[in-house]
Amino acid sequence: xxxxxxxxxxxxxxxxxxxxxxxxxxxxxxxxxxxxxxxxxxxxxxxxxxxxxxxxxxxxxxxxxxxxxxxxxxxxxxxxxxxxxxxxxxxxxxxxxxxxxxxxxxxxxxxxxxxxxxxxxxxxxxxxxxxxxxxxxxxxxxxxxxxxxxxxxxxxxxxxxxxxxxxxxxxxxxxxxxxxxxxxxxxxxxxxxxxxxxxxxxxxxxxxxxxxxxxxxxxxxxxxxxxxxxxxxxxxxxxxxxxxxxxxxxxxxxxxxxxxxxxxx
Length: 265
Ligand SMILES: [Zn+2]
Prior knowledge:
By secondary structure, the chain is α+β, with helices and mostly antiparallel strands. The protein is 20% helix and 24% strand. The chain has a single domain (9-263), classed as CNF1/YfiH-like putative cysteine hydrolases, CATH 3.60.140. The strands form 3 sheets. The chain has a 6-stranded mixed beta sheet with strand order 4-5-8-7-9-13. A 5-stranded mixed beta sheet has the order 1-2-14-6-3, with no helix packed on it. Strands 10-12-11 form a 3-stranded antiparallel beta sheet. A hairpin with an 8-residue loop joins strand 1 (9-11) and strand 2. It is globular. Residues 176, 178-179, 236, 238-239 line the site of zinc ion.
């Protein structure tokens, strides 16, 4: 029997009153070598495919989320969000995807595990336990600018008749303002898109710091989600680069972790 690694993932406090598993993976417990050490879940790096597959197997065993249930995004830092169901189970890991590139997934089906990939980019776990709908979004800075969380909530409303007041959001481990330093060009894009969010920006000399979590909160509030329904686990992946995969923490060379979210019966 493989040794149990209790720190291969952290539970995400979704409090959704449903039978769900919501987790975020750490670097620990996998078989990949540096610089992808250890639990790299990204098939699109120079890490060997067999290692990544084995890492998924280990994570599946540890979380109890079967690989046959997983649906993996093909992320492009855009704003598209796809609705998936049990017909998509296993896609991106055990078989080819039949859905488009996207940075977010939504489902109302049980035993469909949504999987998004992260190495600093913000994971947003969305749920409506009234309608039994869950969503997961990969919101890097480009997708945050394009208001991907707003798209996801819009689909929950339009496709599943979710009400804003029933929707909750939890923001998982990601780069926080302490470490998200950008140049003037990126700051200006954010300022143009969110001119009212002056509290989300600060500067030191010609460098700017942007609070992506704050901006995502603003996007969700604009969709009518209650402030008390939005929670940040408040873990910065760059500050904790030994524990979580971090693109910036690895100076651009890093493995990738994953967010997983599944309802089960
Ligand atoms: Zn930080």
